[in-house]
Amino acid sequence: xxxxxxxxxxxxxxxxxxxxxxxxxxxxxxxxxxxxxxxxxxxxxxxxxxxxxxxxxxxxxxxxxxxxxxxxxxxxxxxxxxxxxxxxxxxxxxxxxxxxxxxxxxxxxxxxxxxxxxxxxxxxxxxxxxxxxxxxxxxxxxxxxxxxxxxxxxxxxxxxxxxxxxxxxxxxxxxxxxxxxxxxxxxxxxxxxxxxxxxxxxxxxxxxxxxxxxxxxxxxxxxxxxxxxxxxxxxxxxxxxxxxxxxxxxxxxxxxxxxxxxxxxxxxxxxxxxxxxxxxxxxxxxxxxxxxxxxxxxxxxxxxxxxxxxxxxxxxxxxxxxxxxxxxxxxxxxxxxxxxxxxxxxxxxxxxxxxxxxxxxxxx
Length: 364
Description:
Layout (H helix, E strand, L loop, with lengths): L2 H24 L13 E7 L6 H9 L8 E7 L6 H11 L3 E5 L8 H12 L4 E6 L2 E2 L4 H6 L6 E4 L3 E3 L4 H22 L11 E4 H6 L2 H4 L6 H10 L5 E3 L8 E3 L5 H14 L5 H22 L3 H25 L9 H21 L4 E2 L2 E2 L1
Parallel strand pairs: 1-2, 1-4, 2-3, 6-9, 7-10
Antiparallel strand pairs: 4-8, 5-10, 6-8, 11-12
């Protein structure tokens, strides 16, 4: 097989994969219940988040969902800044907010430990999780609760990032792409995962899989719990692409923190199902093959393959951002593609040779 033939095959596989994703996106439309009387517990694990927590909690505390039907549990995860003081101010101000202090645990570590302790004291039938550096729309709790029909056990969700400059914009498009694949595979009935800052599940289902203490530890604890619940094969899993359910996060401020984030995600991805690994392999080959051909003088073939890839990526992103009313993010598309090409090629080396994961002052 020649390199040119290999490039053609990889490009066709990438296009086929993209087409399957588009079909999956079309199947993510879901129906809302007219109303829900489910009690919801919102869990926020906070570690040294004094700069972010104010905006986050204020957004969660001001919801269209009745205040009598939801509580907010902030878990102070060993913070050494003024996070606890900020939390205490909220507890005094809002009757449905409580603060607990995470205690060290020899079985489960890090954020998973904080979340487990928050869920332990939660009264809600539905557990809804976000991060301290996120803000949520005022309809977030309502839009989540109203999707929990009697057969729904788990709901993922989109989180995009504030983007006012290229470095932020390329990260937001990256999240759009990754979460778009998660939503598409969920629409196809083979969910690969979700992101932990816009994730909910029934507490009874969480307990059924044993919770974080019984699950295998992972630096991507959200992926672990999603796969455990999906593995029960008893509950529907929804992944809405809906502006009223969209969470907004702050981007990594610099390349160092971005590299650490990718390292952590990459390590967690080693436990991915075969379908997920196949997607990653096809993506990696699509990124590296044009450069291999280029070395052998195939400038035209390499340029054509990259152009086809860019068009496919743009269409996929457009379909998602159009539904989220965030099409303006596509102004960062060129920056995203440059970044995408580089990190996909470097990620395997970072995962296997990057050492321990460093996150929030801890190593795993």
